Amino acid sequence: MSKFYDNAILPAELRRNYNVYDRISELGIDLGSDDDVVISLQGRNIAGCVFHESGIVYLSGIGMGDMQMNDDPDTVAHGQDAGRQCAEHHIRTLHHAISCGGEGGDLNDLIYTVKALGMVVSTDVKFNSGPAVVNGYSNRWQDVFGGGTGHYASDGADAGGYAGVHTRSAIGGFTGRFSLEPEMIVAIPPELAREIIINRGWIFPLIPSMYDKIKGK
């Protein structure tokens, strides 16, 4: 782990005992390249990620899936798969947002997960499967960062840790051309958050001058 995680205030029982990137590799999650993900904010009005000096990190919602949700099992399965894709998008964004400036941090510096909000697209007034759909997102998050419903859990327990467990709201009833839109809040060490903000600001994608600085232009 990095110096930031090692210095974080955590009881020994809750410290991660594995490298997050090993799980990412085993699960076949594509983190993309710097050239594709580390971009300029120029011409954009929404940040994908915002750092607060306290260590709280906010990830904007991302909509995925091709259909509105209802309680049909095949439709719910489609939504769950879209949720997994959303989680992988957020993991990819967070990786590059934390690491692109060379401050020494990476996804292993995620201390814990604070909250997920899953907004599920469904105009069916009898729709009851919102939480089931968002489980696709939450479970994928726990696959990587730890938790009792993740891929690496056994009998509801994850020997690697519980940093992926989060509070959550799963709400249905929205309109849209996708299946769900989750957003996420996580916590990293305040020391790392401050170094990121001092070096390149609190916004990802990067403002144009910081983008040029990081890319060496």
Low-pLDDT segments, ≥5 res: none
Mean pLDDT metric: 95
Please write the string of helix (H) and strand (E) elements. HHHEEHEHEEHEH
**CATH C-level class:** Alpha Beta
Principal-axes shape call? globular
* CATH fold-level topology: 60s Ribosomal Protein L30, Chain: A
Q: How many separate domains?
A: 1
Strand content: 15-25%
Largest sheet: 6 strands, mixed
CATH architecture: 2-Layer Sandwich
SS-derived structural category:
alpha+beta
State Rg.
Answer: 17 Å
CATH superfamily: RutC-like
- How many β-strand stretches? 6
For the largest beta sheet, what order do the strands appear in spatially? 4-3-5-2-1-6
Helical fraction equals: 25-40%
Number of helices: 7
Intertermini distance:
31 Å
